[in-house]
Write a structure and sequence with these properties.
- By secondary structure, the protein is α/β, with parallel strands linked by helices.
- The protein folds into 2 domains: 101 residues, Rossmann fold (3-Layer(aba) Sandwich); 117 residues, Hexapeptide repeat proteins (UDP N-Acetylglucosamine Acyltransferase, domain 1, 3 Solenoid).
- The protein contains 3 helices and 25 strands.
- Strand 1, helix 1 and strand 2 form a beta-alpha-beta unit.
- The N and C termini lie far apart (59 Å).
- 44% of the residues are buried.
Length: 225
């Protein structure tokens, strides 16, 4: 008997976006054996035919319908975000429009409490930590080495960048961006679409759409609309 015949087949997924963030996702999916990757789609025609690691960039988003009809069942948002998470949200909604399921990605080195809630399409990258009682919405990046402590609530489409730390009880509103290496003190509320600059120390609530930076963090300007 062929031992491989008894193994369940993996779902087939497509990655939406072919930049640097997609490379990390390809590696995570390969390491965790979550899915078979059909290919990458990207709106930039100049990179069609290239590869993201060993995965071919097939073409643009107009191929989604054909891929879905051909047996692809899941999608992964391969676009990162430095400030504005609106493009990530739009790609997520595009995948849903074609009736594909968002694939949640978790690197084997990520630590996630069994008492945490993780929504669809979340990406828990190498060395990230999500502790007990934390609740993550959909399409969230907890990037490499980032920490979401107990009882935090992170709403949809948030990016918690590399090495950022949310202390206990933090609430991050939809579309917010927490920059690399930033620290948010316990109990703080970060408003929708707010941006916390890299390395900032947030000790006061941040209003929706505001950009803060520094130690301690202070408002700079309005964030993405």
């Amino acid at each position: 008997m062929n031992p491989d015949a008894e193994k369940p087949s993996l779902p087939r997924c497509v990655i939406l976006g072919g930049g640097g963030h997609a490379r990390v996702l390809v590696d995570c999916i390969r390491e965790s054996r979550l899915s078979e990757i059909e290919g990458v789609l990207d709106a930039d025609p100049s990179i069609h035919g290239r590869k993201v690691l060993d995965v071919l960039i097939l073409g643009g988003d107009e191929m989604l319908g054909g891929l879905a009809a051909g047996g692809v069942t899941h999608f992964v948002v391969g676009l990162g975000g430095v400030r504005d998470n609106g493009p990530r949200r739009r790609l997520f909604e595009l995948g849903l429009l074609f009736r594909l399921a968002p694939l949640s990605v978790r690197h084997p080195s990520a630590v996630v409490s069994r008492w945490a809630g993780v929504g669809p399409g979340c990406q828990l990258l190498p060395g990230s930590i999500v502790n007990a009682g934390a609740v993550l919405g959909k399409n969230i990046i907890v990037n490499s080495g980032a920490v979401v402590e107990h009882d935090c609530v992170v709403e949809d489409h948030v990016h918690i960048a590399t090495g950022a730390r949310l202390a206990s009880g933090v609430r991050a509103g939809a579309g917010a961006h927490i920059g690399a290496g930033a620290t948010v003190r316990q109990g703080i509320a970060i408003g929708e679409r707010a941006v916390v600059g890299a390395g900032a120390a947030v000790i006061r609530d941040v209003a929706a759409g505001t950009v803060v930076a520094g130690v301690p963090a202070r408002p700079l300007d309005k964030g993405p609309g």
